[in-house]
Q: What sequence folds into this?
């Protein structure tokens, strides 16, 4: 039975499960109260300990109703909600407590924990405030240690953990952080598989797996999934009822494609009340795996969707497979040569037409903004059909993720996030040798450069993990990519590979830069900013003028002053040449020139748009039409070919491109395009089969040509072009 | 047009969905040369032969699922070749 069916049959599963015995949970100090309140609180805590969450909840409700002035009870109740995966309600209760007592340290800690779970940069600030309100609150120090380690700042993490241990020598999470810092830098340990800190935790309680679970969390965060899973196994070995570890191990096993064990662990967690959203979402996603098929070719495995839906009356796999397979092979071959590294097992690329499935596949939760994610040798990514056409370059994304596969494998996952992301962004255009791929300088990045918000290279990881403003992750991708462009330009492409190798030994970024580039990190930042300034100065300085200019163009257009609009557009276009999003100067100029009947000028604008990386399929097709009409067949073919790497799921594109390829005697690709059209079950079956028949005939594949002519005539027996062709292919 | 009176037309008549093939066989109007051909006694026989072959093809398509693939393919190809020849003759 699938997970979803089980869930539906249970109906009230949450309530039923809530009455089963609970696992051991981390304790928290009991608020000091007297009389009836004490008894009620004890009852609530006891119910909680036994896993009778509904009863505990009822007790807390009664307790708070009886003592509305007591903030401690609200905080304790909030902690129950936080543990039971309802941070919104927990947050309300913590805030209510703070209204009663504005410096309530545990309420602040509760809010800090919620923020930390969401990787909100405010978490550290909140935890700091909690320690100010109560300097003895060691859990706040533990949380600060965790946040620091997430920011890849082991020194600060260790200091915070020491402060927690100075307050409370048995602080489990503080010991776990100390142990994890050592394990992440295992070269310093005699036994590289463990740290004495974990032995200390087990000395206090041989059945406490929380320490290992914390270590596992950090290994996963550092993309060292296999080691992370190994620590979850250790956590479960000492504390089999640590359901959190079962769930998280299941999610990470799923990430690595070990689906059978993943499902077993997730179901175990679910059936033992660990029913958070990632567990549920992952199990539901795994139910949908029979909608996918695997295609192995050489050292690559493709996982593509085969389910026909009301919105998609065809198997996506039939359309995408030839394009993905060819690019996957090309990327792997390119990287093997460039990085001088052979992968020791096949790479699996999973393509999800439903973005939320992809998000659950990667994070356990929907709502992920990314387009692709790499887990060791597995890449999960959006399908081109999963996003509006033109909003996403699937091939660029795949090359980006495959760079991660190599770099993570070469460095045994030790490479800092900023470098693997930067290199992957660099390779989108460098390795692919397609300058129109990758992302352009966008307004958020321009603003960040203007506001001097770029981070020093030594701190760049922070921009990915704990962003301090909404677009900082995007800005950090851009900055990291530009850093790699700069290194390649100044020291040459081989230097990038040298740095990959240098990052293999857990060496911090400043040391790697000093040793391999001969500069301090600070000096590197200075040189990089000079380089970036040279690349972006014109756009950054002209950005406001460009915005004003585009508004003026809009006004001129509304007033019907077309010539003046053209003049203004020509003036502002080059202030921000990278702007190729909707409403770009290129598109507007092309439209205005077309209205004047000046097709050559319109074509020139659209050529610049396409060369710069413009991706709107309809605009690019317009360019191909103009080129075709002007007799520039090869250029038209190249223009439409660009769209294959953006959105191949387009019958019109494939039919037109196939025609141009036939005209250019490229029968191999014409056959590919026409087959993809047929895979999408076009209404014009006769014409589509006939196109393919012609391509086969031109390629000298007579048997296939005959089959396709017959298929064409089967759909429309009176279709004259096919009727005329049939005797010829029948006789040959 | 459709075959069964369910009310909605079939865009892609096929043996697979079994819908629309009979309705699609009804000629509604004969245009231009086709009209002339219909009144030419020499071509009338050819037109009748064409209709026969088309009916034969339709019949084959309806029987497709119960036939061996090779037999179906051979029968269809033979009929289509003859249809192409007849059409060629009509157009001469």
A:
């Amino acid at each position: 039975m699938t997970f979803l069916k089980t869930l539906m049959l249970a109906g009230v599963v949450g309530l039923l499960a809530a009455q089963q015995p609970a696992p051991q949970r981390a304790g928290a100090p009991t608020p000091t109260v007297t009389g009836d309140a004490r008894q009620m609180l004890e009852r609530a805590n006891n119910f909680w300990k036994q896993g009778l969450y509904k009863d505990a909840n009822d007790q807390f409700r009664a307790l708070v109703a009886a003592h509305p002035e007591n903030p401690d009870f609200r905080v304790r109740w909030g902690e129950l909600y936080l543990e039971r995966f309802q941070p919104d309600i927990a947050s309300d209760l913590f805030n209510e407590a703070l209204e009663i007592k504005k410096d309530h340290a545990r309420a602040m800690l509760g809010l800090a924990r919620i923020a930390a779970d969401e990787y909100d940069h405010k978490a550290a600030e909140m935890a700091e405030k909690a320690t100010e309100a109560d300097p003895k609150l060691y859990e706040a120090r533990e949380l600060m240690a965790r946040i620091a380690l997430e920011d890849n700042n082991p020194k600060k993490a260790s200091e915070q953990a020491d402060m927690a241990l100075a307050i409370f020598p048995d602080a489990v999470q503080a010991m776990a952080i100390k142990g994890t810092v050592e394990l992440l830098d295992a070269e310093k340990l005699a036994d590289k598989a463990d740290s004495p800190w974990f032995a200390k935790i087990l000395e206090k309680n041989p059945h406490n797996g929380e320490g290992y679970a914390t270590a596992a969390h950090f290994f996963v965060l550092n993309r060292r999934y296999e080691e992370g899973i190994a620590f979850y196994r250790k956590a479960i070995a000492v504390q089999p009822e640590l359901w959190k570890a079962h769930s998280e191990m299941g999610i990470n096993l799923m990430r690595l494609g070990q689906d059978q064990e993943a499902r077993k662990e997730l179901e175990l967690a679910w059936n033992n009340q660990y029913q958070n959203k990632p567990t549920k979402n992952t199990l539901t996603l795994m139910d949908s795996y029979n909608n996918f098929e695997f295609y192995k070719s050489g050292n690559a495995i493709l996982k593509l969707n085969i389910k026909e839906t009301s919105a998609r009356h065809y198997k996506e796999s039939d359309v995408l497979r030839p394009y993905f397979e060819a690019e996957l092979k090309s990327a792997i071959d390119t990287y093997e040569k460039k990085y001088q590294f052979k992968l020791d097992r096949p790479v699996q690329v999973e393509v999800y037409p439903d973005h939320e499935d992809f998000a659950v596949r990667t994070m356990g939760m929907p709502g992920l903004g990314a387009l692709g994610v790499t887990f060791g040798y597995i890449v999960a990514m959006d399908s081109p059909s999963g996003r509006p056409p033109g909003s996403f370059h699937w091939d660029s994304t795949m090359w980006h993720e495959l760079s991660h596969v190599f770099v993570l494998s070469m460095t045994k996952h030790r490479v800092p996030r900023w470098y693997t992301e930067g290199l992957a962004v660099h390779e989108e255009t460098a390795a692919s040798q397609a300058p129109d791929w990758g992302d352009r300088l966008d307004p958020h990045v321009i603003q960040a450069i203007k506001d001097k918000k770029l981070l020093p290279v030594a701190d760049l990881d922070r921009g990915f993990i704990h962003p301090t403003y909404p677009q900082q992750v995007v800005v950090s991708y851009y900055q990291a990519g530009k850093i790699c462009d700069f290194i390649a330009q100044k020291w040459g492409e081989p230097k990038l590979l040298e740095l990959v190798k240098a990052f293999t030994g857990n060496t911090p970024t400043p040391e790697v830069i000093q040793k391999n580039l001969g500069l301090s990190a600070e000096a590197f930042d200075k040189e990089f900013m000079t380089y970036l300034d040279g690349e972006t100065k014109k756009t950054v300085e002209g950005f406001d003028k460009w915005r004003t200019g585009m508004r003026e163009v809009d006004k001129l257009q509304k007033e019907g002053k077309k010539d003046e609009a053209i003049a203004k557009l020509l003036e502002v276009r080059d202030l921000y040449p990278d702007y190729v999003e909707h409403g770009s100067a290129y598109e507007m100029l092309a439209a205005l020139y077309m209205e004047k009947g000046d097709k050559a000028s319109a074509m020139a604008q659209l050529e610049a748009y396409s060369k710069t990386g413009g991706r709107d399929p309809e605009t690019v097709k317009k360019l191909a039409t103009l080129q075709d009409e002007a007799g520039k067949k090869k250029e038209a073919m190249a223009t439409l070919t660009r769209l294959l790497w953006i959105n191949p799921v387009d019958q019109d594109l494939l039919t037109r491109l196939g025609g141009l390829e036939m005209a250019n005697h490229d029968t191999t690709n014409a056959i590919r395009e026409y087959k993809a059209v047929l895979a999408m079950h076009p209404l014009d079956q006769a014409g589509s089969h006939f196109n393919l028949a012609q391509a086969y005939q031109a390629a000298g594949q007579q048997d296939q040509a005959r089959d396709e002519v017959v298929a064409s005539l089967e759909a429309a027996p009176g279709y004259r072009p096919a009727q005329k062709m049939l005797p010829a292919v029948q006789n040959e | 047009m459709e075959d069964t009176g369910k009310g909605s037309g079939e865009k892609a008549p096929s043996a697979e969905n079994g819908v629309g093939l009979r309705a699609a066989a009804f000629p509604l109007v004969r245009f231009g040369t086709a009209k002339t051909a219909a009144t030419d006694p020499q071509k009338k026989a050819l037109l009748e032969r064409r209709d026969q072959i088309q009916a034969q093809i339709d019949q084959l398509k309806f029987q497709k699922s119960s036939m061996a693939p090779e037999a179906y393919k051979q029968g269809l190809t033979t009929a289509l070749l003859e249809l192409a020849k007849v059409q060629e003759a009509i157009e001469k």
Notes: Chain A touches chain B at residues 683, 685, 706, 710, 713-715, 717-718, 720, 723-724, 726-727, 730 (CB under 8 Å). DSSP finds 37 helices and five strands in chain A. The longest helix of chain A spans residues 521-558. The first strand of chain A starts at residue 292 and ends at 297.
